[in-house]
Amino acid sequence: MTSPIHVAVGVVRNPQGQILIARRPLHTHLGGLWEFPGGKLEAGENAERALARELAEEIGIRVLTCRPLIKLRHSYPERQVLLDVWRVDAFDGAPHGRENQPVAWVSPDELGNYAFPDGNRPIVAAVRLPDRYAILGAQPPADAPAALERLERLAASGIVLAQLRAHGLDEADYRRLAQPLLRRAEALGLRLLLNAAPELAQELGAAGVHLNSTRLMALRQRPLPAGLWVAASCHDAEQLAQAQAIGADFAVLSPVQTTASHPEAKPLGWRRYAELVDGAGLPVYALGGLTPADIATAQRHGGQGIAAIRAFLA
């Protein structure tokens, strides 16, 4: 098997939060599809240097600030690629198609309206996802007022994505708890996923479903349409591979460090976390004994950010 083509990719973001995309020329591989600008590494280049060169050549900007976003491997019938994706938050120059390719600034949520190569789907997810994913826990008996109060606090702290986890509730009690929380989350602009059966999440109008590892391993295909989030709880390489195989949008990998909720579980540590994330093929949050101060550490190790139960309510 030949080595994959190593490509540096730039997710260029302007001060308004829009993302720059470019359309591939019709005569090229995957012509006519939209993409994030970038190109192949040359001999002796690292990804960051190649990114700076390619963005200068393709869209006429000088990169000032960037950081790794996600690394992906993808196989097309005719080639394999390793996409080394970087987020560019500061640059000099006015981006334009120096090779006469059309370019457009679009909001992250508008990216789904454009046709991208298959290998770019996890990049689109990573662009749209925040760096914090909250876990809103509830134990029996279901206390809706307390859960609503925690939801309000999460939204006030800047959380925009969360899941409702209440393993001790039966389906009827979970449904009663979820309904007012979903209504309030929508009003707050917070996307709430249900840690429950996918059918229930879709029926109640949730932003998506969060699959526990048991549900994840029982599936053979993506359980919800593309417009809804599908997330998965993972603890090892096999579960991460399953999440990728069914088309999950992102995963949560745990425990990274010792956690109060599962003190008996052996932590992965950051080194093993990075090894697992490197081959995951989708955005991965770190979970377990972490606080917002660990977001940059998670990102340095290839993660999307962190997930937490208590840390965002402190």
UniProtKB/TrEMBL annotation:
GO terms for MF: 8-oxo-7,8-dihydrodeoxyguanosine triphosphate pyrophosphatase activity; 8-oxo-7,8-dihydroguanosine triphosphate pyrophosphatase activity; 8-oxo-dGDP phosphatase activity; 8-oxo-GDP phosphatase activity; metal ion binding
Residues the entry annotates as binding Mg(2+): G38, E58
Signal peptide residue numbers: none
UniProt cofactor(s): Mg(2+)
Keyword terms, alphabetized: DNA damage, DNA repair, Hydrolase, Magnesium, Metal-binding
A Pfam family hit: NUDIX_4
Claim: Cell membrane is one of the keywords in the record: no
Annotated GO biological process: DNA repair
Top-rank taxon, per record: Bacteria
Family according to the record: Belongs to the Nudix hydrolase family.
Protein name (record): 8-oxo-dGTP diphosphatase
Species the sequence originates in: Methylogaea oryzae
